[in-house]
Model the fold of this input.
Amino acid sequence: MTETQLIAACKKGNRKAQRVLYERYAAKMFGVCRRYVHNEVDVEDTLLNAFYKVFANIHKFENKGSFEGWIRRIVVNEALMFLRKKKRVSTLYVELSDREVEVPTAAKAQDDLQEADILKLLDELPDGYRTVFNLYAIEGYKHREIADMLKISINTSKSQLIKARKMLKDLLQANSEYRVA
Done:
């Protein structure tokens, strides 16, 4: 079944198609969700809530752009909502003045740094740093979009990214398993 056929069947409420769609995207979206939420039980709950929203709103997908990208956006938004409900994100930002902040390039880790190692390092970041880092560096959002999503200033988004990158670099340098080149 092609993706277009699968989407059409899901729009008609076909449970078998919904199961196929879930099985096709759940593992990848679990990884997306995991970058934001620490606890695996919370990740699973967040992922299920996200897929509930996917199926409830699939009629809004107009076959414009990537379907996977559309699902990813729902998953990211659901993870952010989870963090907000836990009152983690909103209290972690320190507002900056309106001056511009230069964003340095990220430190480069060894080529053999594995996904599990990266997740372990990301888990060591405070929620605010990790959230902005994920949205900017991994999801590709711009600082203005991040600021709107998290209800923070653009400069706070930039500051959180700078601090996240610095902390990741420091963690890499401090840990003998991961050396910055």
User: Anything to note?
Assistant: The chain has two domains: 3-86, 95-174. Residues 88-112 have pLDDT under 50 and may be disordered.
